[in-house]
Amino acid sequence: MMTTPPPVTIQTVPQPLLKVQDLRVEFSSRRGNAMVLNGVEFEIRANETLCLVGESGCGKSMTALALLRLIPSPPGRISGGKIMFQGVDLANASEAHMCDVRGNRISMIFQEPMTSLNPVLTVGDQIGESLRLHGGLDAAAARNAAVDLLKQVGIPAPERRVDEYPHQFSGGMRQRVMIAMALACRPDILIADEPTTALDVTVQAQIFDLLRDLQRDKGTAILLITHDMGAVAEMADRVLVMYAGRVIEQGTTAQVLEHPSHPYTRGLIDCLPKLGSSLNAQRDDLTEIAGMVPSIWELGAGCAFRERCPQAMARCAVAVPPLFAVNDADHAPDVPDPGYRHGAACWLRADETGASSAAGEGRP
Q1: pLDDT the model gives residue 206
Q2: pLDDT tens digits, residue range 237-251?
Q3: How distant, in Å, are the alpha carbons of 28, 59, 230 from that of 74?
Q4: 3-state DSSP call for residue 125?
């Protein structure tokens, strides 16, 4: 008797909500043009948290501003690449289309809530603005919706506080107001630029818990920008490490944190204190990354990290390395989507792989 073979299961990957391809941003000055973002590429899917991590000046916030076309122009401009969202390239979309996207389909929590909130308007008016603009609500309905949003983000007595001003809120509460504003129109993507800056660790934990709860309830994709590897470990599904306007390592959180394959990524992780060790041991164990992020005017040829890298070679000063595939214990070669593969833009990886193929679409 013949038996019917079991059906073949074909692994599929959800389509990305947002796909960034070869994104380039230039700034002009009296010294000429400088490339602030150079070939940035990534994808993000529904219900996923993608972290952009790196030191200040690496291009993280500039990437977020480019996605929403908020780069100050002049002197800045998107000089190349695509930002594909719902079949439209936002890099070349009309301003009318971008007005519909901003705050509606893609929202952003800015880094400094006190400077991002208007001091002469109540928080209720500021939350309700996007609801009136994009949702067509009248003033009364927008106020009621603002009260509900304040309640969702954990602000006590929302019926009273909706009519208060930003200076009447603490730093953590102002950040919650910013989250309520960003989520007012139930966006597909939430960009959170250093959402816990200057907040104490208890409030930081509360903000992260709030973001996770909202993501679970609404299925929102989160693009989290941070320099804190602890926040990456707590929040991220995937990680992009940026340096001098380029992606230099990418992969799942486990791949990047457990098997860092770029010297810069290892340096960021080594800067973290180890739990369970004494203060004196922590001082001895911490490894500082020498130097600073180079000026965009001083990058020159080759790898931008070479002057700070303890493993730099002569080749590093000649050419920029592409994003090489990393073969580690967590690397799954059968994953059909390059965005989920571990890659590092380092010439050390070329010696390991013996090939110049990239883990994605990294460009030299």
Answers
A1: 84
A2: 999 999 999 999 999
A3: 8, 18, 36
A4: helix
